[in-house]
Structures are given as C-alpha cells and as structure tokens.
Amino acid sequence: MIKNFEDVFEALRAKAVRKRLVVAWGVDSHSIGAAYLAVEKGFVEATLVGDAAKIAKVCEEEGLDASKFTIVDNPVEIKAVAQAVQIVHVGGGDVMMKGICSTDKFLRAILNKETGLLPPKGLLSHVSVVENPNYPKLIFFSDMAVIPQPGFRQKVKMSGFLVGVARSFGISTPKIAFVAASEQMLDTMPACTEGAMLAKMCDRGQIAGCVGDGPLALDVCIDPESVEIKKLRSEVAGDADCLLFPNIESANVFWKTNSKLCKGVRQAGMLVGTTAPCILASRADSVDTKLNSIAEAVMFVS
Amino acid sequence: MIKNFEDVFEALRAKAVRKRLVVAWGVDSHSIGAAYLAVEKGFVEATLVGDAAKIAKVCEEEGLDASKFTIVDNPVEIKAVAQAVQIVHVGGGDVMMKGICSTDKFLRAILNKETGLLPPKGLLSHVSVVENPNYPKLIFFSDMAVIPQPGFRQKVKMSGFLVGVARSFGISTPKIAFVAASEQMLDTMPACTEGAMLAKMCDRGQIAGCVGDGPLALDVCIDPESVEIKKLRSEVAGDADCLLFPNIESANVFWKTNSKLCKGVRQAGMLVGTTAPCILASRADSVDTKLNSIAEAVMFVS
Fold first, then answer.
1. Is the complex ipTM more than 0.90?
2. What are the residue ranges of helices labelled H in A151-216?
3. Deepest in the core among A70, A117, A209, B282, taking most CB within 10 A?
C-alpha cells in the first residue's frame, strides 16, 4: 500500500510505467531538473518545448545530459507554450507541465476552445497531495489553485476528481472528508450545509467509489484522538484520505502551512478535468515538489 | 522581546502581574488544571463557579490543593454559567474562561444584553496565538471561531483587535498581513480586493499602530525565501506578526494544521470585543493550550 512518495516511485518502478511528459517553456533549472529526475527514475520520457539554446545552457550548468530529452526548439515563449499544448492536444503527450512561463499564458493555452485541453462544459480543478511525517498516509486535497469559491455542483465534480486521483494511487475506497470550521450543523455556513449534502451523496453512491463524511473540522478529519474526545461516530473521521476544502483560501493555507511551518513534508499538485493532467507548479516550488507532481500525474494516467 | 510562551510567562513574572480569572462551570480536570497552573505561576487568582462537590473531587483526583481557588458553589450548570458571567459583568473579574459547559450556553450568557459582556454595537471576534518552532516569533491571527465570513467593516475592526493584542505583548508596531490565496490583484476575489483596501488603510493610519500589507498568500506572509523568489517588495511579507484570514475556514485550518500536523507547537486563543477577554477553549484543547490562553488574556488586560 502506498503511504508516501517513496512508495509512489516504487509502485511506478514495479509497474514499469513510462508516460510522455511535455514541458511548456521548460527552460529553467527547476523544471528541467525535475523532468530529468523523472526520466532517470524511468517513469517518463520528456519533451521540452522552448528555446533550445537556453535549454542546452541550463543542462550544461546543471551537469545534465541533454540527449535524455526530446527538445523542440521554439525560442518565442508564447508560441512555445501553444506548441507544447498542441502536442498534447493531438495525443502526442500524456502529461503536461508548465515551465517558467506565467500561469496566465499557460492557462490561456489550456483553456483555448479549439486547441486546448479542457473538454466542452468541462470543469478545471486542482488536486494536491501532501506527505506529512505526522500523518500515516498521503492526504489528497482540493482546491488550492483554481476555483475560488466552488458552488455545490462544482463540489460534486471536485469530489469525483479527488476520489479518482486517490483511487489511481491504489486506494480502492478512499475516505473523503468535507472540511468546514466545525462539525456542528450550522445552517448559515455553506461549508456545513453542503458538507452534509455531499456526505449524503456519498452514502447513496451518487458520489461513487468512496466513503464520505462532513461537515468535519480539520482536527476530526485527521486526528483520531480529537474524534474520540468529541465522541464522533464516522467511518471517515480521524482517517481521511481526501479533503475537500470549502474555498480556495482554506486549501491554500493547508498547503502552505504544511510547506512552510512543518518539517519533512513532501508535496505534489496538478490540474484535473483536462484531457491530460497539467502540472502548474509555482516558481517557488522545489525540484522535489515538481518531481512528485510528475509522479502524481503519471499515477493518475496509468 | 517576547518570542514564545516561555517569554510570556517570564514577562508576566517580571511585571508581577496578578489578575482575577473567573471560570464558568469549571468542574473538569483540564480547566481546573490550567487555572491551577496559572495560579501557581502567580499571574492570576482564580474563582471557579460550579458544583463544589465535583470541583473538590477533581482536585483530590489530580492532587491539587483546592484552597488555592475561590470556589463559588452553584450545582446547576446553566445557573453557574450565568453567575460566573455576572461576576465579571459587575467588575469582579478581569478574565473569563469557559469550563466544560457547551459553547452555546457560554456565548448566550456573554451576549445577553443586560447581564453579558459585549458592549452595545460591539463586535465579538477571536484572536489566536501560535508558537511554531519553524517561525522565529509568535503569530497572532483571526478569526478561527466566531465570524464565519467577515465583511469589510468587520475586517477593519478585527484588524484593530489583532494589533491591540500584539501590542499588549510588547510589539510596538506589529506587522499585519491580510491573507488571500494569492498576492495577485484578482478583482473577483474579496480576499484580494479587501486585502488591498485594508493595506491602504494601514498606510494612512486609518488602521492605527501597525504596518500592514495585503493581499498576501500565506507563504509570502511568513517565508522570506518565498518573498525573494517572488520578488515582492513589502515591509510585512516574510516577517508578519499578525495574520487576518479572509474567512473562518482558512483560519481554522491554520490553527488545526499547526496543532495536528506540526511538532512542538504551542497555542492560545480568546474572544475579544467583550469588556473582559473570554477564553473559549474546546474540550479537545490541552491543559497547555488553556494555560497559554489565560496568559494571553492576562497580557491583554495588563
């Protein structure tokens, strides 16, 4: 059973998975370094779309063998991004990753109705994964990056994405918690009312393939002792695999408290809802986070 | 300068502060234990209002000298809560603490227009304090407990409370960050637009006694490296004392990620806006958190 990112890499090795990664404007040391490690670990082959001269220079500086990559030379950033997305659009790639281009440019290319990666009426969302030494397994959560204040129908779809990603990691029936500020049924707080509705949909199989409960405050989602003290009866509480946060700020705070105030944390994240998962790593993300994100995306499409 | 809770206790000792703590239905081992430690440390004298027989039993079981307390015998929970609040209402106490009664009952007594503790047209809010070994000083933040989705005018008042509490800890000009999911100026997200407005009010002294900036995502609030990578210029970023979260869920997630997923964290919290600060600790909070909360409240009124 997969409990952490080392287990993920081991699972990918055991399954001998190799998927096609395409990096849009992958001309910086972090993106190239992460793609290189993923190639070395054997679970992707990588195409870098960008200024070939810049790529060659970074590889030389970092001591990386550039011949391990397929390099598509396109020295104009915005055109390189469009070309990278186009490669995936026509089926030439399984996983997409943003390089050092702006998020705006990358999203515009992905959302382009004719040449992009989002199906008609599709919903774009984001699934993150956290490994924290104080929790016994990976935590999958949404959405720290894309949907500011999801409505109820969006939450239903986002739950499906979350459960789908967790299942691709070998968790046959993920436990999903609908996070609120309290497990009290406060009828003026949408996180509470919608948490209860989503939990009921899980009970009835309307959100399929999982066990769900909510509203639950974060302590009772992940801490068995808090569950005991509060005498909650729940199949999910204290042992959640997936957390659906009620808004972008709470999910964002969860990611960043983990990365900036906890020791020994490893993280990953990707866009879902697209025909291929898209890694939207930030400039401030480490090579490790980008590598984990590639692994997350490859697990999801394998 | 105060960097952690040990410094707080030292400061209280040095100032030889002694305030009057009143505990409403303080008949459980955690409340009594925390009050006892605060008495032992010398910064409060404590009155417990509740069933004297229960209190005597807990003191005996825990090996505590009951004669260190003033005990007001009132064996009916709801009446004991009302009596405790009444004592503070008439000036017989400086700091109020909830014992093991329900939050609902406690809040109803505090909010009672004739006998409660909230001034007319007052705003009730909550200020928490976190000591995290991965941050060099205390973090003050609002509001994880009371106001679900503060409006702009409420945020202005909440900022004043936060700054006031930080100043009572000896921070002469606290740095306050207005938290959002991004430091981009996204005009569809209230956390961003209002973060900018609040920052401007700090610039102009309309929120007084502090330096403020926002919108800022949590990483750039507290992590100097992220500030450098993102090339932000800000007097607050990377070094915040105070965090105003845009909604109850994000503040609640910040508290609970700290307490459940980080090691070596110490925390405190209290209600503000009332004539005396009120500690609203949860059943699941440790004796340590309750003791720290008493210290926070005593700092604030000293």
1. yes
2. 152-168, 190-203
3. A117
